[in-house]
Specification:
mainly beta, globular, 7% helix, Porin, Beta-barrel porin-2, OmpL-like. bbp2, 18-stranded antiparallel β-sheet, single chain
Length: 459
């Protein structure tokens, strides 16, 4: 289904987002371009002035970030309640010393891959065009984060995303400028991927209400390139829902327990499309006091389950386990299904940009289930480097998500290297196998091997 990537600076007004860092340049001399260049010079030579970490509320962070994408066990649909804004902002530092709460930032992500396939790498999603140099994402954020550390007053925030690149194929939702994909299948496109407002209320340990279009809540991975352990995405992630439109309430009951309830219009659709359906989401998140384990359970986008654009009924479980500060694993499994899906070769045509199901002979519609599991094993080397070994399984029982009725597996070995806090390089080797029938290179091969990398430049 969809995946997100990043944004870029195009000579003047674009912001390079560095992942969590307490460093902040205080340089105010020179013009904008001189201040901007000076930030990178300091970042790459490790001479950015450091400041004490701002206070946080809750359990200590289990991970180092960087090099990892997040310092805390992540959950969707809300900022991490009790965590301060510890990111660095090269562009905003050059504009106004990063003194305003409204930020512009983003990244640019070119990618390259070499593949044993010649026509398509699908169902591998984000580098789906084989043997090509592509621009997967240019992303620009406009954002104001609510202050969720304090518990004395109501606060608010907002987020707007502009994404351009090949990855719009995996972020586009029906009704949001989707004709460029559904009607024209353009290689490159633009997607306003996320538009939401956050309202924070000092209830219990903190309550956040998110209203708008946001990332579908469960899971380890996210559409935005810097938010992932690896460049490529798991098979599990590549076919599950990506964005929802509605309202999500996230209530932090205590340092260890978190409850989420949401009402959306289904998955990957706008409210004004005929495919929109009132759908419920409920999640429960638990962290042990040692922060060595986290369990995140979600029932996502639940309604009658009848066939509509990406109307998958998703039941998801994520488990994080920390062996030590430098070694941890992340495991996710889900079960999804959709009822009354049109049969392959039957009289009922499937919706554009959706796939028919391999129903039993004589049926014009049937239920299409699929299940998947993935494990990430992550070893930190130092503040600039870590390795990931990912193992992934998917059973597309009716072929309704990938176009091939088969079981899949994939193994990926990835290396993540940071230059300062503003550049990431993520080379990887990946092997995919379809167990029951050929499913790679447009259904001609059982196996696929890719060597790939992306480069993320934050602004």
């Amino acid at each position: 289904m969809r995946v997100i990537r990043s944004s870029c600076l195009t000579l003047g007004l674009i912001v390079l987002h560095a992942l969590p860092s307490f460093a902040q340049s205080t340089t105010t001399t020179g013009n904008f371009f001189q201040r901007y260049a000076h930030y990178y010079r300091q970042d790459w030579t490790n001479t950015l002035p450091s400041t004490p970490a701002p206070p946080r509320r809750g359990l200590p962070s289990p991970l180092d970030s960087p090099p990892y994408p997040n310092a805390d066990w992540s959950y969707g649909g809300s900022p991490v309640i009790g965590e301060p804004d510890t990111q660095s902002y090269p562009l905003m530092t050059a504009i106004n010393g990063a003194t305003s709460r409204t930020r512009l930032y983003g990244w640019i992500e070119p990618t390259i891959n070499a593949s044993t396939s010649s026509s398509s790498n699908l169902p591998e999603a984000n580098n789906y065009i084989p043997n090509r140099l592509e621009l997967n994402q240019i992303v620009l954020y406009a954002e104001r984060l609510p202050d969720t550390v304090q518990r004395t007053h109501i606060d608010w925030g907002f987020h707007l995303t502009a994404l351009f690149g090949t990855d719009y194929h995996f972020t586009a939702a029906k009704g949001y400028l989707s004709s460029q994909l559904i009607d024209h299948n353009n290689r490159y496109g633009f997607d306003p991927t996320l538009e939401y407002a956050d309202i924070y209320l000092p209830v219990a340990q903190g309550l956040n209400l998110r209203i708008g279009r946001f990332i579908s809540v469960p899971g380890i991975e996210a559409q935005l390139a810097p938010n992932n352990y690896t460049f490529s995405h798991s098979l599990l992630y590549s076919i599950d829902p990506f964005t929802d439109t509605g309202i999500m309430a996230t209530l932090k009951l205590s340092d260890q327990w978190l409850l989420q309830l949401g009402l959306t219009d289904g998955h990957d659709t706008a409210l004004w499309t005929p495919d929109a359906k009132p759908s419920g989401t409920a999640c429960l998140n638990y962290t042990t006091r040692s922060v060595n384990d986290n369990l995140y359970l979600c029932a996502n986008g639940i309604n009658d389950g009848k066939y509509a654009y990406d109307n998958a009924q998703q039941y998801d479980a994520t488990w994080y386990h920390r062996f030590s500060k430098s070694l941890h694993m992340a495991t996710e499994a889900w079960y999804m299904f959709e009822r009354d899906v049109p049969a392959v070769g039957g009289p009922i045509a499937p919706e554009p940009n959706t796939i028919a199901a391999a129903c039993a002979p004589g049926l014009t519609r049937c239920t299409a289930p699929e299940y998947a599991a993935v494990n990430f094993l992550n070893q930190e080397i130092n503040a600039h480097n870590f390795f990931t070994l990912r193992t992934d399984l998917l059973n597309d029982k009716k072929g309704q998500r990938t176009g091939h009725q088969t079981r899949y597996s994939e193994e990926t070995l990835s290396f993540n290297h940071w230059i300062g806090n503003t550049i990431q390089l993520r080379p990887e080797l990946r092997f995919d196998h379809a167990w029951d029938r050929p499913a790679y290179d447009n259904g001609t091969h059982h196996n696929q091997f890719t060597a790939a990398t992306d480069l993320i430049v934050h602004f």
